[in-house]
């Protein structure tokens, strides 16, 4: 009886059509998901390249920062050496000022001695001329 039921063929046909529509929808959904997955993969590739570039830039920045630190250290050492040299120059200048004072005193003493010798010489010449 169930084999001869005319509605059974209609139901099977309806079921086949329903399954066919569902398979078509499933295929479309699968196609949509595949497209979305491919787009996601492309986006991931773009992001990976960007991350790689950022990592390179961070590495370069770290190297530049290290070079800057070394330059600052070198500059600080140079400034320390300049301070030592300035101190030494100031000490030498002080010694030169002292020496200049002693030379001025010596020159004044020498000038006074020369002046006395001139007077003595004038006196001797004058005395010799009187004889």
From TrEMBL:
Tell me the superkingdom of the source: Bacteria
State what protein this is by name.
Answer: Uncharacterized protein
- Identify the species of origin: Iningainema tapete BLCC-T55
Which lineage? Bacteria, Bacillati, Cyanobacteriota, Cyanophyceae, Nostocales
